[in-house]
Design a protein that fits this description.
Largest sheet: 8 strands, antiparallel, barrel
Oligomer: single chain
Helix content: 25-40%
CATH topology of the largest domain: Alpha-Beta Plaits
Number of helices: 7
Strand order of the largest sheet: 1-3-2-8-5-7-6-4
Structural class: alpha+beta
Strand content: 25-35%
Length: 293
């Protein structure tokens, strides 16, 4: 896939600088109305889109994983492809949660992507299931669709911005690292740091065929003081080996050729001051709906 040079991209990309404190305050203040709603723009698509993610976390009974994946492939994937044909969703993928953490109690994660908030949590529809699987009895099939697992948590996220290859309409990749962040009580610069400083660096990684896509999300639901994170970034990779590489000064120099090393170092520092990294997980895609069914 042909990829544009990061230095030549202007769509949805802002070049960071090191303004005075007054200028920085004005810059952040002016950006607030823009960040209240999503502006997701790829290099080949100037149209603003509001995109939501529904993330469902599954826990399986012992020994249920092979049958669960087969059931998702055989029964659920065609249902989600029908939803794509109907225009209800953009995509759906099921991931094996390879690395999560000692306190995490889920085994698989499903991501449903849509531009229609009202389409969230809409896959368990008997009429749709009957249309997709007319040869099966609807009631027995619905029971089969929910055997061997339960959903222990669900979240709704909204995309804030993305770096994707030319022509891509949605992020993709066999492996993902999901970075859970908490910006509460920090400097307030987290969105500016992610979209102004880091997004151009991720385009360099795409150009160098290290990364497939990158997206920033804000969590919509749940909310409140009890949540441990309020925004996230996801790196999408085609190869597991690409995850090992670090993102440092060398790539930053390519993405921001007008900045000196001292200025780049300041942006790295300000990134750390803008949020707390709660955890990073590694997932592998095992089933995905065809986005052009």
């Amino acid at each position: 896939m042909q990829r544009n040079s990061a230095a030549n991209r202007t769509s949805g990309t802002r070049t960071p600088s090191t303004p005075s404190r007054t200028a920085l305050f004005v810059l952040i203040f002016m950006a607030l109305p823009m960040t209240a709603a999503l502006a997701l723009t790829s290099a080949s698509d100037e149209q603003e889109r509001t995109v939501y993610l529904q993330i469902d976390y599954y826990v399986l009974s012992d020994g249920a994983a092979p049958g669960f994946v087969a059931m998702q492939e055989e029964l659920w994937r065609p249902v989600h492809e029908e939803r794509i044909r109907d225009g209800a969703i953009i995509g759906w993928s099921l991931y094996d949660a390879l690395i999560t953490g000692p306190t995490v109690d889920y085994d698989f994660v499903a991501i449903t992507m849509t531009e229609d908030y009202g389409a969230l949590f809409g896959a368990d529809n008997r009429e749709l299931i009957a249309r997709v699987h007319p040869q099966r009895g609807t009631d027995p099939l619905v029971g089969t669709l929910h055997e061997g697992y339960r959903i222990v948590n669900s979240e709704i996220w909204r995309m804030n911005g993305a770096a994707m290859p030319d022509g891509a309409t949605a992020p993709a990749g066999k492996y993902v690292t999901k970075n859970y962040m908490d910006s509460r009580g920090a400097s307030g610069e987290h969105e500016s740091m992610e979209l102004d400083f880091w997004k151009p660096i991720h385009y360099v990684r795409i150009d160098q065929d290290i990364l497939n896509s990158w997206v920033m999300y804000t969590m919509v639901k749940p909310g409140g003081a009890s949540i441990r994170y309020n925004y996230s970034t996801i790196d999408y990779y085609d190869r597991l080996s690409d995850i090992e590489g670090s993102v440092g000064m060398e790539l930053a120099r390519i993405a921001h050729p007008d900045l000196h090393d001292e200025e780049l170092s300041d942006f790295f520092t300000r990134t750390g001051q803008s949020r707390t990294a709660y955890k990073t997980e590694l997932w592998r895609e095992v089933v995905a709906a065809d986005r052009n069914p």
